């Protein structure tokens, strides 16, 4: 009772609601790990469009298969991508600006070679009344002509005790430069800036970076999946993200496929993050016979990975729009995202509406007509290999929805991609939506609240058509009571919640039975 009852009358109390709404998590946040020409290497970045990728990571590059995969992802309906940049011996561009201070590009690559800097002493002290001067303060202007980005940092100081200490300011606010060596005196000044003038419009007003950066060499398994990187780099940069749903590792180069150790590490990581790894078929697989003989060497079958065959031919804007061969992971991830948006995570990302946007041909049986026949599809489908097909009128589509545990011989409960992804979606949503339960009194009132909230969430999915059955009791169950949580569990601080669901499985084989009947006279 929140207030003392002192006078005759009506008292109003607000009671806490037992409802703790469980919100479904995102289902198609796609992580890409690989080489780019610029961008941070110490953390992943969440992007909302390919324009964001161009701004942060420099856009398309012939040396970056990841850049093409990201472009294809957004082209096919993707909306959120997480980029983890890795590099092999790339170096920072730099410039010594005097006073013992050296600036370096914010991250590795030749992009930093074009950076321009202007320094002047027109600080705020000169505009005080009366004017004064601080010999350690200055203004710093930085321009990147490559991205047409300009940054201004006024009234920064070389004094570590100053709240505008230049090293701290650049670390926290600049996307272009960092202080690699800190001097004790103010840097060298450029010529004075005329009123309203662009300090970079005249060469006399700026200083160009003069120590060249380097893009390094092609990445390999060492930079992406070496066990020594666990918890700090490569694939494990993604530990810094809260949620990923799909994982893509584009080929190391256009001519070098991802190797088995990297696929193994990525598959294990995807499973630990409750995500699906999209595995690209090796470029050497030119026909279904190669698939049958080579499948066992790609990666150990896992329900957290799905493999797609063959590769795709798409126009390359950096090669006069000539058709080039690309691994399909970016295209397929975009279709996952598009299907989730249009139908839901429980719908298989395959079928006549899973069109391959931007794909001109497929690289199998020769580039013309580059078709897989039904018979050839029937050879690899029972092995858990998802095919990309071309059909008259319909066009090019994804024509398979099995995980790598989808081979018929496994008889696995996670045979189908939508079933595995729906289970991950429910697990992640309930994990986040039941955090309030921790440290609550472990008895029937708590269990009733759990049944109410989890039941509401499952009912919402049932109404959207996520489960089998015509009634809730056929579609799902939520159990939390004395049967699931015994007195021993209570004594040990444990509450057990049983959630079951009847997943929809794709109609992979449609059988039409046709029979002649005799007309009755």
TrEMBL record:
Pfam families, per this entry?
Phage_sheath_1C
Known InterPro entries for this protein? Tail_sheath_C, Tail_sheath_structural
Q: Which residues form the Tail sheath protein C-terminal domain?
A: 412-516
- Superkingdom of the organism of origin: Bacteria
Family that this chain belongs to: Belongs to the myoviridae tail sheath protein family.
What protein name does the entry list?
Answer: Tail sheath protein C-terminal domain-containing protein
What organism is recorded for this protein?
A: Luteibacter rhizovicinus
């Amino acid at each position: 009772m929140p207030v003392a009852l002192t006078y005759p009358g009506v008292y109003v109390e607000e009671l806490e609601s037992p409802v703790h709404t469980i919100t479904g998590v995102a289902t198609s946040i796609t992580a890409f790990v690989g080489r780019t020409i610029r961008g941070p290497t110490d953390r992943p970045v969440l992007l909302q469009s390919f324009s964001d990728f161009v701004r942060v990571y420099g856009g398309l590059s012939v040396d970056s298969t990841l850049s093409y995969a990201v472009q294809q992802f957004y082209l096919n309906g993707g909306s959120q991508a997480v980029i983890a940049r890795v590099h092999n011996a790339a170096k920072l561009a730099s410039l010594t600006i005097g006073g013992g201070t050296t600036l370096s590009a914010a991250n590795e690559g030749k992009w930093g070679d074009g950076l321009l800097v202007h320094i002047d002493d027109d600080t705020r002290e000169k505009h005080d009344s009366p004017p004064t001067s601080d010999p350690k303060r200055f203004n710093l202007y930085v321009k990147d002509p490559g991205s047409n980005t300009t940054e201004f940092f006024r009234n920064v100081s070389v004094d570590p005790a100053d709240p505008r200490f230049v090293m701290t300011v650049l670390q926290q606010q600049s996307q272009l430069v960092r202080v690699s060596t800190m001097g004790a005196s103010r840097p060298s000044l450029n010529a004075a800036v005329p009123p309203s003038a662009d300090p970079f419009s005249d060469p006399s007003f700026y200083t160009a970076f003069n120590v060249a950066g380097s893009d390094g060499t092609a990445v390999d398994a060492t930079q992406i999946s070496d066990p020594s990187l666990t918890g700090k780099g490569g694939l494990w940069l993604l530990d810094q993200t809260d949620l990923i749903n799909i994982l893509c590792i584009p080929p190391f180069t256009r001519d070098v496929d991802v190797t088995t150790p990297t696929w193994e590490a990525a598959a294990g990581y995807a499973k630990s993050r409750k995500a699906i790894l999209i595995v690209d078929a090796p470029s050497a697989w030119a026909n279904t016979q190669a698939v049958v003989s080579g499948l066992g060497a790609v990666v150990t079958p896992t329900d957290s990975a799905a493999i797609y065959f063959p590769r795709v031919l798409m126009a390359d804007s950096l090669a006069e729009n000539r058709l080039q061969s690309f691994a399909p992971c970016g295209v397929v991830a975009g279709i996952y995202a598009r299907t989730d948006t249009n139908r839901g995570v429980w719908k298989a990302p395959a079928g006549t509406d899973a069109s391959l946007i931007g794909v001109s041909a497929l690289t199998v049986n020769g580039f013309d007509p580059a078709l897989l026949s039904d018979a050839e599809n029937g050879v690899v489908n029972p092995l858990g290999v998802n095919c990309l097909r071309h059909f008259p009128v319909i066009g090019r589509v994804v024509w398979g929805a099995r995980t790598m545990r989808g081979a018929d011989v496994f008889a696995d409960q996670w045979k189908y991609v939508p079933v595995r992804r729906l289970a991950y979606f429910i697990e992640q949503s309930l994990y986040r939506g039941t955090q309030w339960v921790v440290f609550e009194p472990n008895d029937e009132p708590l269990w009733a609240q759990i049944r109410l909230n989890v039941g509401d969430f499952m009912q919402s999915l049932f109404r959207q058509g996520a489960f089998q059955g015509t009634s809730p009791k056929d579609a799902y169950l939520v159990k939390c009571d004395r049967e699931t949580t015994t007195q021993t569990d209570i004594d040990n601080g444990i509450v057990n919640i049983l959630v079951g669901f009847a997943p929809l499985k794709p109609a992979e084989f449609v059988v039409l039975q046709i029979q002649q009947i005799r007309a009755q006279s």
